[in-house]
Amino acid sequence: MKRQPGDLLIIGGSEDKESDEEQAILRQAAKKAISEDGGHIVLLTVATMEPEQTAETYRRAFGRLGVRRMEVLDIRNREQAYDPANVEKLSGASVLFFSGGDQLRITSQMGGSPLLERIFALHQEGVAIVGTSAGAAAMSGTMLIGGPGSATTNGSNPCLSSLAMAPGLGLLKGVIVDSHFSERGRFARLMGAVAQNPHNLGIGLDEDTAVLVRNNDEEFTVLGSGGVYVIDGLGIRFTSLSDMHTQGILTVHDARVHVLARNDRFSLKGRRPLPPLSPATP
Amino acid sequence: MKRQPGDLLIIGGSEDKESDEEQAILRQAAKKAISEDGGHIVLLTVATMEPEQTAETYRRAFGRLGVRRMEVLDIRNREQAYDPANVEKLSGASVLFFSGGDQLRITSQMGGSPLLERIFALHQEGVAIVGTSAGAAAMSGTMLIGGPGSATTNGSNPCLSSLAMAPGLGLLKGVIVDSHFSERGRFARLMGAVAQNPHNLGIGLDEDTAVLVRNNDEEFTVLGSGGVYVIDGLGIRFTSLSDMHTQGILTVHDARVHVLARNDRFSLKGRRPLPPLSPATP
């Protein structure tokens, strides 16, 4: 019997690490590790330049939530991603958690390696994959990379100048994920990424906000305290993308945008918001 | 013969004050004062708590652009807005320029006063009105006011918590204007304002970016280096606005969004982007 692929939990960064309430994002992240017999979390700190500090933060947060075991896999170079001992460390994990940092470190150190192949295989077998901030951005097939500054540092051209992209992990197809969305004013950059190929849905995640992707990647549910912004570019009637006269800002007409909040559901397959599960709302 | 109302130039704040190139926003703001015989600019510093510094900044900027005369009208209290001497100071002006600061100071100190009545009358007679930042926000009939923090200071509820509104000047009907748009991550708050009454178009202006409203308020053209975001809520199929279960973020489905860049035109009357004037673009 073929197993269902594991859940993907994609977090916009800066998730609450103190809360232990039912709706806290990290509680959802830890769920599978807590419920499974001998289940544990492997924290992948490849993205960050401060792996010890990151590990300590999550060790404390997950401990508070009742996770009995968290292992840290800290890949510093490609050689380590080829080391069978490191690949073996993933065995038996219920949850693989990619920390924040620089998404290019994730793909450049792990892309094409036996370690990443093993992660794909485990996901197919039902292991949950979680990524926050850089770990979230890396989920898509093509990922946004920050460039030297975020859109907020320079009002003069928030779109094209910060629209640097690179090949991502491809754990979730057909989307472009951006994190720290409202906090760093990234609407224009995600819109620009969508306009490059409207096949992809743009998913912008506020901080302390996540989408839980289930049912073989067909739909997601929103978790956390902020908003999720879905940019659907299929209706775009005009873009200045290939117009050589354009400098800076990209003109885009008629994009469709959904703003989603906690418990809202969205069909990735149907590109539509799904009706709320609560019978009280229309 | 009835004269055409004057232009409205609505600036997203932090406009370039050093540049004297043809496309600089302040050059457009000064145009009418330079071209008219004896024309001058009246700078209204009512919004700011640093009127001297603001006046000095614009005196230097407009002097560099060739403006021969700039008067400062600094209203500190409502009494001054009733003083005939102050009303008289507007006579003969080609351009009235509202500085940035706090938009509530503009409306609370000037709302309903003879000074504001005179400004409305002058606008109808062809005088150009310019507003930047707070001066831009105050242009609409209902205006967004910042609240204690902008959306960027708190990722937990960027929408409703910062969605404080107040009656504006009403110089431009049927719109809600927000400034510092990408720089302060204000997409969710403008979307929330639009969802409250989708009759209004949301117009988000990046810094150093402006819309020049012409032809009896029927259309605008984009100036400056950033983007203009038009949120059209007429297509919204669902919003959680009146759902008492909602906390924080507002769910909105199917908003239409246009991103516009320098020289792009938009029909306010038709709620549609207009074709570029350049024959080179489709």
Explain this structure to me?
The structure is a homodimer of 282-residue chains. Chain A has 8 helices and 16 strands. Chain A is an alpha/beta fold. Chain A has one domain (8-261): 3-Layer(aba) Sandwich (Rossmann fold), CATH 3.40.50.880. The longest helix of chain A is centred in the first third of the chain and has 14 residues, at 51-64. The first copy, chain A, is globular, with a radius of gyration of 18 Å. In chain A, the strands form 3 sheets. Chain A has a 9-stranded mixed sheet with strand order 3-2-4-5-1-10-11-15-16. Chains A and B meet through helix 8 and strand 14 of A and helix 8 and strand 14 of B.
Provide the gyration radius of chain A in Å: 18 Å
Biggest sheet of chain A, open or closed, and with what strands and sense?
9 strands, mixed
User: Which percent band covers the strand fraction of chain A?
Assistant: 25-35%
Q: Number of helical segments of chain A?
A: 8
> What's the CATH topology label of chain A?
Rossmann fold
Choose one word for the global shape of chain A: globular
Alpha-beta content class of chain A: alpha/beta
Low-confidence stretches of chain A: 147-162
Helix proportion of chain A: 10-25%
Oligomer: homodimer
